[in-house]
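Section: Multi-chain targets

For targets with more than one molecule, the full set of components is provided together so that the structure can be written out for the assembly as a whole rather than chain by chain. Components appear in the order listed by the source. The example entry contains two components.
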Amino acid sequence: MFDLVVSIIADYQGIPGGRIRPDSRLVNDLGLSSFDVVSLVGRFEDAFDVEVPDRQIKTMQTVNDVVLLLQALTSGQ
Amino acid sequence: MNKPYPHYEVPVYHDLPELLDVAMARYGNRPVFRTKRRSGERRVSYAQLNAEVRKLSACLQRTIGSGRHVAVLGENCYEWILTYFAVVCSGNVIVPIDRELAAEDIAELLTECDCHFLVFSSAYKDVFHELQDRLPALDGAEQAALYARVEREAPAAWLPTVRDAPAALIYTSGTTGRSKGVVLSQNNLCADARAACAFVRLYGRTIALLPFHHTFAFTVNVLCSITAGVDTLIPTSLKYAAELIASFRPSFLTVVPMILEMLDKKIRRSISERRLAGVLPALDLLCRPFDAVGIHLRGLCFGSVRKGLGGALSFFISGGAPLDPELSARFASYGIPVLNGYGISECSPVVSVNRLGHHRPGSVGQALPGVSVRIDRKGEDEEGEICVKGDIVMLGYHNLAAETSAAMQDGWFHTGDIGKTDRDGFLYVTGRIKNLIILSNGKNVSPEELETYLGRIPGVQEVMVSAADNRLTAEIAPDEDYCKSLEDPQEYFQEQILRLNRRLPPYKAIASVRLRDTAFRKTTTKKIIRQQKEDHAHV
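Its structure, encoded as tokens over all components, is:
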């Protein structure tokens, strides 16, 4: 899951995947705006066939936060 | 080119019932709002909106009476708009709540404005229950339940309302950290919507991308769009905003600069993928001489770029935050001008806007018809405080008589913003008197508010929040004794701030932390001087 999340972010932001680490902060380290993060969530939804409630988006501060949230949603928690 | 031209014809209305009646007479069964959910698309016509506002107004007056403050909390949807109209048309005062606020902040705001009734969407039911735990007297209704009552309600006539009485109470971020409630009347809101429509002709379709609790979004995307007979799509989320723009084919979009940045990123990615990066600047140069003589080739030359934005997009209206002229120029080169404007909640909110074919780079346009702008206390550079007069100016701040008197002098509202005008009356905003941080997404951040939260972190002795390039930085003067017990103070404070960010709205997230060797310089009254020398800080 981590690899797919990284490849989606890298593709969106036009940066090498190698720059993205689990503790990379989406806004501060990867240069995404809050609208970018919302757009990315749409891509995650398509890739993982889940629905991320809008109110949970703000919990996504780091790449690891994204992975944990998607893991929870895909496992139906 | 670039000469003033007459104002557009706009129907006369002074309150919301008049607006809805005028719109129903003109546009009848045409769609006013559409919502798309997984279950399909739902359309509401102008006639249906008119009838449903009347019904819900009657229903609200029976159940909660009139003269009360009624808050609305939820994502953008048709029911949110219906609630807003019905609350006002039933003689109550609407209090739109920023849905990104934490429950404790909403509770504080509701207490401040003596609001005991909240209309909420199902997605915010848990917040309502949390608020009830904090405010036992709070009553409320879920939007879906209210709408179900509307469907059973008999047709109703308009209830009498007073157009100059308080209609909306808008909370803005204050410079002192305390939110101020801006009181607007129906006449204020209607005057602004009418004047804006006389300046910029809205038509066709649009997508409501900005949250309705922002006055800018409500005035332009709801009041102006209804005035002009626009068909508005209300997305339930912005997760697929770019795809919706491509498929819904809007005629214009109301945005904050951060949305433009997001779309620009998408366009540039697409250009790069199609290896067109070298071709487009040449096309831009080719179009310039034709622009000068009024021949529009850009639609043809930049067709592929425009197709990515639906293909029918004629212009953007941008407000809420300063617009980067380069970004604006890039969209103009694709043949999609960005009409930048200036507004403030206290002025309902639009004060000025550039017009198609009549605009100046870096300017926020001329004052709307019926609105006067004066530059007060001009310095040598002709810059001074922007003051505004006209029907768009608020009634005052809620329960803040001293602040109201300070802001309203001789009928002029003192905005606290710095600017200048050129000889043709184009306004240029150059700064803020206030400390308020305005991000490019239009969000206002009160540094004092964040400093309060940061000050609660163990080990923080003093703190100051500032912004550069849209990123918030916390500069901390740590408690030295506390730091002795820490292995890595920088890492500790970063971790603490990450925790704080998780409970803050995304736009208030703090991007970086700097630790100082020394205390901050202060005024004689022991207040931190915000323009600190850099030499005491280290990253």
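The mean pLDDT of chain A is 90.
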